[in-house]
Amino acid sequence: MSIIEDQKRFRDIVKGKIKENLRKYVSHGEMIGKREKDFVKIPVPQIDIPTFRYGPKQSGGVGQGPGKPGDPLDSSGQGDGTGQAGNLPGEHQLEVEFTIEEMAEILGESLALPQIRPKGTKQIETTTTKYTGLAPVGPEGLRHFKSVYKQALKRQIALGTYDPKNPKIIPIRQDFRYRTFRTITRPQTRAVIIYMMDVSGSMGEEQKEIVRLESFWINAWLKKHYKGLETRFIIHDAVAKEVDEDTFFRTSESGGTLISSAYKLCKEIIEKNYPPNEWNIYPFHFSDGDNWSHDDTKICIDLIKNFFIPNTNVFCYGQVESKYGSGQFLKDLRKEFANHDQVILSSISSRDKILDSIKEFLGTGR
């Protein structure tokens, strides 16, 4: 078995271990903690490959030494187990790199997620270059040196000028070969995720960590379907504002909560930057369910009905349980949108429920 096959087998084993313990990895955030650009470093238990170890020379081999067939084995060298504790490390951790797309595959297979069905008609066209073969003419930058060598070798052997004792291969012009290529144009659907989060005093660090973990996996799955996925972030208490990703997960505020402020800002961002007939739009809102008043909840419901449902793929609301939050907002939305498959509502009581919530959000394939 080749080294490449061994590596593939090893990665398949690691993938299997991640699938088996996906809920643990998701809830504790090991995967996100060591993220570098498009790769994630995943700590997994050290997997030792069995190998033969040989003792020092001149120390005898298997079956050597005094004794006759049938003699009992000497157990006098058995230790009594009363020695001192060692100072060597115990279980090691191995870090394995996976791409975000590989992580999305693991997520999709584990949760049996359907493929996304993009909406919208207008698309960006992307071009890629595909090498298709070899030709006797072409630009010098595309000369294929291995093929040139083969052609020259075949020619010299056919002419009888090749000397195995003095194997000089001298290409001539007719031996030259150049890569040929063609440009492939592919349509590429555009998409944006707009995350909104309540950062009022009742949303503590644990609640925001749950949102951080869940949003990572949501991003991973949507990036698998949309190359160049855009992400925007809105935080709100009684007032909403757009921020970068780091601020989104680190900001702590106090005071009241006016959820409609976030929905209005999200609407403004969409209208200004993302025409619904050209973009696949995914708004996600996370809160503990407290809102300033029932009147503001009515404004939110109207915005969902009259703007978000007609203009987005889905509208997703995740309610993170907090001992300070009433949870009333989720109850109001369930009462209003219980039978509407474009409004997806999820209750996230703890980290262990993150995978269930992702399944609810992404399980429609919209």
**CATH fold node name of the largest domain:** Rossmann fold
Give helix % range: 25-40%
Specify the structural class.
alpha/beta
Our measurement of the CA-to-CA distance between the termini, rounded to an integer number of angstroms, reads 43 Å
Task: Please name the CATH architecture of the largest domain.
Answer: 3-Layer(aba) Sandwich
Top-tier CATH class of the largest domain: Alpha Beta
Radius of gyration, rounded?
Answer: 31 Å
Strand portion: 15-25%
Taken in chain order, the helices and strands follow as HHHEEEHEHEEHEEHHEHEHEH
Morphology call: elongated
Instruction: Figure out the total of helices.
Output: 11
Across the major sheet, the strand order is 8-7-6-9-10-11
Per CATH, the superfamily of the largest domain is von Willebrand factor, type A domain
Low-confidence stretches: none
Average pLDDT for all residues:
79
The largest sheet, given as strand count, sense and whether it forms a barrel, is: 6 strands, mixed
Counting DSSP E segments of at least 2 residues, the number of strands comes to 11
Whole-number tally of structural domains: 3
Describe the model:
- The chain is an alpha/beta fold.
- It folds into 3 domains: 1-48 and 93-112, no CATH class; 125-185, no CATH class; 189-362, 3-Layer(aba) Sandwich (Rossmann fold).
- It has 11 helices and 11 strands.
- It has a 6-stranded mixed beta sheet with strand order 8-7-6-9-10-11, with helices on both faces. The protein has a 3-stranded antiparallel beta sheet with strand order 1-2-3.
- Strand 9, helix 9 (294-311) and strand 10 form a beta-alpha-beta unit.
- The model has no long low-confidence stretch (mean pLDDT 79).
